[in-house]
Amino acid sequence: MHTFFSWQRDLALGVRLAAGGGRRGWIRLGLTALGIGFAVGVLLIGASVPTIVAGQSARGMAQSASTVVLPGVDPLYFRNSALDDYRGVRLTGYWVSPSGPSSPKPPGVDKLPGAGEAVVSPALADLLASEAGAALRPRFPNGVIGVIADNGLKGPAEYRFYVGTPDHGTIDQGWNPVYSFGDMDAVHEVVPAVWLLAVVGLVALLFPVLVFVSTSTRLAGAARDRRLAALRLVGGSAQQVCRIAAGEALLGAVVGLFVGAVLFLLGCGFVEQIDLFGVSAFAADVLPVPALVGVIVVAVPALAVVSSLIAMRRTTVEPLGVVRLGRPARRRLWWRPVPVVIGLALLLSQGGASGAMRTDALVAGVCTFLLGVPLLLPWLLERTVVHLVGGAPSWQLAIRRMQLDSGTPARVVGGIAVVLAGGIALQSVIAGVGASVGAPMERAGLTGRSNVQLADVSVEDLEAWASRLRGLPAVRGVLPQTTLQVSDPGSGESTQLTIASCESLLARLPLGHCSDGDAFLVGSGWSPRPGQQVVVRSYGQSRSTAPWMLPISTASAVQIGSGTAAPQTPLFGVLATPGAFRGMTVPPGDMSIQVQLRDSDPAGADQVANAVTALGWRAQVDDGGATTVSDQVRQFRTVRNAVLLGSGITLLLAGASLLVLAVEQVRERRRQLAVLAASGVPVRTLARSILWQNLVPVLIATAVAVLTGLVLGAFLLGVISRPVVFNWAGVVLLTSSAAALVLGVTAATLPTLRRASRPVELRAE
Q1: Which residue in 669, 657, 651 sits closest to 748, CA to CA?
Q2: Are 442 and 202 in contact (CB under 8 A)?
Q3: Using CB atoms within 10 A as the burial measure, which of 98, 544, 598, 762 is most buried?
Q4: C-alpha dihedral over 735, 740, 742, 743, to 10 degrees?
Q5: How far, CA to CA in Å, does 619 sit from each of 82, 154, 756?
Q6: Where in this chain does the record put each ABC3 transporter permease C-terminal domain (predicted)?
Q7: Which spans in 20-147 are helix H?
């Protein structure tokens, strides 16, 4: 009981000393609170992730269409729109065709659109109203009649639309009868590799925040030690001054909690305006989980107190001064790699587990491994600076300062090292997981071609639309074709049949000579013999067929290897011109027009898409840059974008914390800097010494982070049995960002350095 009251009394005294320390004491308290506040703000964002994900998942579930028949409900015929990309903006759209007055409405839609009308999300409405959306407006010929409400969107930056059409096609053509929305059975299983990326991303991004909290509580160490020495002079024991120092740190942590809460609330006011990497959230969703808030409120002050006590362990405060600036004992290495080894052992225990991964072991392994990074840095920096001698005056000033106290700069950059190590590991996991789910890392560029797929269009209409596209200014040429299937009525073997004009065929394959009525065989697979009776059929479930005899003249056709065709036009099987089908009715096939543009300008692809708008859902335009993605790829992209966004936020936090710590270091050494300036050392030399003091630890921290990040990434990929893939471009980007942070922080500390080097700072209090 006596110990409890002693702790209570000494902590309270520390709080009073920190709060009543005058102007400079308040500045120290403000810097500590600001550093912790940045970290708390990020922790509150992390605590809001579950509610953000839950809100988006609930609205995504509400968007799921159910085809279960409901009595008394007129089905709404529903089909995905081919318009899924506009100049790099991802779009999600659907064609809708109500069959009666009781047809269900998608969530957030008050009125179903009529023919050619559209209901769009607010983000898409803004795009259509802007100059950038001028080429997109013709896709909605009858205009926008409504805006989708928030309950029908996953996020404020979602580009979603519903377009009405008076008729609909068959199930083969992608149409489905929808009787309700909010299909609770539409559960999308999370891919284990994507789950690994999400868990590791959350841990790797939030763990450095705790390092920043620990570092921020140790600001102004020299000034604190002088105050504690005065307390020893009036009779305080060594244990008492440790508890008093913990009280000072406790006040900074508590004030930092309030600062972090204020920063978080201010950020919530702008959250709906943020759209980074395709990630956005409604302000109503950014609500921290109460249990996690409780953990933050307890953990941050506790971490501040523990960090303060650990810092005092290496400092002997005596009544007549502080025994700290002498040569400290050399740091020992033997125990510092232990967390790294334990972390790797935990990850190895999950190797190959895939779907049976234990989240607790995974989180513990990553946290323990990353803990080794700030533990290794002080030892490595101490050993490095001992061997750095000579050089320019600014270099010698910086190195001598780090030789006297290598612990402080190591702590300063420890958080950045953890951020870089976690970020590099995440880049490796992103590359490996992206390859495993078949996700392209970037959108493919425009190829100078557009492919127009047509449905329910006659051969005559195909030629008419080809002529119309041929007249567009951006079009260099058009190649229409019809694709069907031919099969042997006896054996059932089949191959592809492509019907196209000689102009189209000669533009794609070196056939030599071609005239209307010719047929050609391409490829090494099964193909019918010249003069053989075959069956021509259309693709799909409801196949229509017609008998056809392969022309005798096919025998004289050149047999072309499958590798001869151009990569963008993989033609194979039977190629025939329209004249080969005279006197017979060809079944409806998959019709398409390959449009060759004059250049790869997106405006040309927009001209093509706008020209076939009158066909409605019967025309699908692919500009060669957008790709159809699976649910796994969508999951991966969502998690990847969230991780990249989190990496950016954490890196900004690292820069802000580094700036706060650098400013405080300059203030703490203002008397020494003033003495140097008064002795004739130019301010620019002092500025360069500050740069070296920031840059050298960051370079060492970057080297450690790259090595540990690559090792962690390799082990994480081993957990899910994926080949090791390193994203070197991501590594270069992260390390370059760290160097940019150093330059930015050094530039930002120059005003403080000029003030600190004034002669007035020589005055002793």
Answers
A1: 657
A2: no
A3: 98
A4: 150
A5: 8, 28, 70
A6: 647-758
A7: 22-63, 122-129
